[in-house]
Design brief:
Length: 159
């Protein structure tokens, strides 16, 4: 079973100074923090802000290739959490309607999802594992509320 989510926030972990993408349930209380690299966080922030690079960035290139091949990104699935590593799958529909599943890092998959306006889903088991294993959840909830910034300020959080 999967839960639909959206990018709820992009914040910095005050302890490690690492960006965190916070996925928030569309129809519920689900919150999933995913620590990401600075480059991936920047790619996500640029797309949230709809800032167009003078030359295509990697995720823009990937979107352009998929589009030129007459394919479509159907959805992103954050499918697993093993040894503190998240796993994702990009599902692409080809010109004949076949679904192609591609293994990806969640940060790259999220950056692509934002560029293709496709839905993002998280496996319920990932939410359960994450919520059970993190002692940071209350702190993340508090930071999530404190760091809610208008979208135009998100890139400053990546700094």
């Amino acid at each position: 079973m999967f839960v639909e989510v959206k990018v709820g926030a992009l914040i910095m972990d005050p302890n490690s100074n690492t960006p965190i993408v916070v996925l928030k349930g569309v129809d519920g209380e689900a919150i999933l923090p995913i620590w990401v690299g600075a480059y991936e966080a920047n790619a996500i922030a640029l797309e949230i802000e709809k800032i167009v690079s003078p030359r295509p960035m990697t995720h823009d290139l990937l979107r352009n290739i998929i589009t030129e091949l007459k394919c479509q990104v159907e959805k992103i699935l954050v499918s697993d959490l093993l040894d503190n590593t998240f796993y994702a799958i990009i599902e692409i529909k080809d010109i004949e309607g076949n679904i192609i599943s591609i293994d990806a890092r969640p940060s790259d998959a999220i950056a692509l999802a934002l560029r293709t306006d496709c839905p993002i889903f998280v496996a319920k088991k990932v939410l359960d594992i994450s919520n059970a294993s993190t002692s940071l959840q209350p702190k993340l909830d508090e930071e999530f509320e404190e760091t809610q910034k208008p979208l135009e300020e998100w890139p400053d959080l990546i700094g």
